[in-house]
Amino acid sequence: MNLKRRHWRDRLMLGVLSAATLLVLIPLFIVIAYVVVQGIGALNGDFFTKELGSPARAQMGQETGLVHTILGTMVVDLLALLLAVPLGIGAGIMLSEYPDHRLNPLLRLLNDTLNGMPAILKGLLAFALIVKPMGTFSGFAGAVALAFVMLPIIARTTESALMIIPWSIREAGLALGLPRWRVVLSTIIPTARVGLITGILIAFARAAGEAAPLLFTSFGNNYLPSHWSGWLLGPVDTLPQRLYSLAISPYKQWHEMGWAAGIILLSMVIVAFVIGRLAWSGGRVAKR
Amino acid sequence: MEQAEARKTLVTRAPYGRRPEGQTAELREMGKVRMQARSLSVHYGTAVGVRDVTLPIYNQQITALIGPSGCGKTTFLRALNRMHDQTRGARVTGQALLDGEDIYAPKIDPVIIRRRVGMVFQKPTPFPTMSIYDNVVAGLKLVGIRNTALLDEVVERALHQAALWDEVKDRLRNPGGSLSGGQQQRLSIARALAVEPEVLLMDEPTSSLDPQSTMRIEELMAELKTQVTIVIVTHNMQQASRISDHTAFFYVGDLVEFNPTRKMFTNPDEDRTEDYITGRFG
Ligand SMILES: Nc1ncnc2c1ncn2[C@@H]1O[C@H](COP(=O)(O)OP(=O)(O)OP(=O)(O)O)[C@@H](O)[C@H]1O
Ligand SMILES: [Mg+2]
Q: Is residue B75 within 6 Å of ligand 1 at its C-beta?
């Protein structure tokens, strides 16, 4: 009878938890569904192949799209990852593996400061560091601003992913006569791989959605750059910033395109997380 | 032989726990001393791990460390390949000589010492996501040996030696973490053997193994003796008496007695040793 009651309580608990999960998921689905419904109409061939141009194009029904925005987002986000991943992982390794290093308090302070800094200030920082000296808004400046967003997230997740690896694994490597850095690179990092990838993806998802730091760094652009170097050295369009400017524009056609930009942004983040999940389950299978 | 035996007893009859500095000189004249602890102490913060241990490790012989749990066997063992460097709060004083050279001397690189003095830990420590194969050759691969034929050979030999080959030969690419506890321990042994250390420190290597594997590992140690100097920590008195040439008995941080194993188990100098060996305490 006791057993029966326990069984019943178990079922009740499961029910409550499922209901709570559903409650969290429902608003998420509503948001996604709403964005899709509003924007799906603008997702045509032109959307993926044409540049935006002036508002007149959309109003007159001429060809217009966001190809320059989608490409620009990829360039800026990837460049930001390129900058933030090595630095962030390096900082995480320093914090976790060399806790007694004398530069570590400074590193931790920097990282915590960056972590607590509002995104728009990071844009300002990149503005001061890159845009001012270069004399122009640029995709590169945008990437630096986003790297500032990613950096502390990657550093922190790396640190905690490395910290949960038992100390004995490091000792096992050292006892084989491997130098400390070798142990970290060849045994600790592969063991923590899944945690590192997850951290990078969280950082990516966070940064990919940020419009504020891009407003005065990559700035935005209605056209494709005329030369390939324009992706890095000239103003570049990105999805969150474009979404924002489409949304505040007075043109109804642009509003719809803004929703469509939202769909693309959402899918980008979702795809990133699916990849991350796959890597995660891959790691789990390997551990078993 | 008799003479050597006599010399050993001469050296070992002295109370080993706390030897005055001057008396340790005679130990080095042994000729066959491979490693030598001299007034070696390890402190954890203010607590004592082992205190003032002076003890020879004879070349190509097996030295067993015995004593009740917490008496400092692991602590002493780790001092012999500078593993304490990595332990926060641990402080080593005194000397540990390897071929007459103090491994704690400032100019000595601990990485080189650990390459020469290998270690098998009390708990199995495979690299969990690395394959069984890569686990075995980790020490070799990571110092730049890439010749696959050579690596294949090393893997097979080391796994054979560690009595694991037959169980894993068809799944060398599976992760090391996928093995059972006892298999992981044998994998750790294989990994330590693969780098061919001169001295091998083994901390209760068979405590998680079944009698069959234990026997194989003991046979392995007997075989390896011709090439490797072995120091083994064990709680198994039979094992110590079966396989070791010398035995050191530790008690709460002190080395109580060090003697040839035969003497230790038949006619120990110290009452405490006898009490422990016969199971009267500990
Ligand atoms: N990292 C550490 N920090 C603080 N104290 C420690 C540490 N490692 C060991 N000690 C202490 O040092 C003493 C000796 O420990 P050690 O591990 O050497 O014992 P042992 O003889 O190997 O025991 P067992 O047979 O249980 O493995 C114990 O009192 C233990 O609590
Ligand atoms: Mg121990």
A: yes
